[in-house]
């Protein structure tokens, strides 16, 4: 339900606001740092390339196995991408904001709040469940894919300690999956 999704988004942003402004963490704890940004960016790109290859294989499998999608070729996808390329700067800002809230604020806070030897996993998983829930309004395919990708981005943030890694990866994979490979449009076709 769209209304429930809006309430969840407002709750998530309010929680992130409270954590960010009322807890005494330095900005670097939230991943706001330019230290080693080149190395972190390259790590993020290298880590994202195999995911892009898997998405491409899934796209080809869908195209060959589902008759309703067979007429949508990858070249049609490139045309789709060029027609929507004006959306890309906004998508970058959206990815940066989502990563700041989910990884930078909530994952950081949960890592401090949780106890036990598996607290890193649970911090990534718990913050990602909110991230995933915010995307369910787009359908089941989006919910499943954001769960998997969000865990990946949580790992990148945990590994590097910088928001640069999940932001770069989120942007690359989002543009690749949504605009180049057209998964959102294909999901609507399959229905």
Summarize the amount of helix as a percent range.
Answer: over 70%
Structural class: mainly alpha
What overall geometry do the principal axes of the alpha carbons give?
A: globular
Low-confidence stretches: none
> Based on DSSP secondary structure assignment, what is the total number of beta strands?
0
Mean pLDDT: 86
Count helical runs. Answer: 8
Reported for the largest beta sheet, the result is: none
Could you spell the SSE succession in H and E letters? HHHHHHHH
What is the alpha-carbon Rg in Å?
A: 17 Å
The N- and C-terminal alpha carbons lie at a distance of: 17 Å
Q: Approximately what portion of the residues adopt beta-strand conformation?
A: under 5%
Give the SSE layout.
Blueprint (H helix, E strand, L loop, with lengths): L1 H21 L14 H29 L8 H10 L4 H26 L5 H16 L5 H21 L3 H17 L2 H8 L1
Helix pairs in contact: 1-4, 2-7, 4-5, 4-7, 5-6, 6-7
Description:
The protein is mainly alpha-helical. The chain has 8 helices and no strands. The chain has helices spanning 2-22, 37-65, 74-83, 88-113, 119-134, 140-160, 164-180, 183-190. Helix 1 crosses helix 4 (88-113), helix 4 (88-113) crosses helix 7 and helix 5 (119-134) runs antiparallel to helix 6 (140-160). It is globular. The two termini are 17 Å apart. The mean pLDDT is 86.
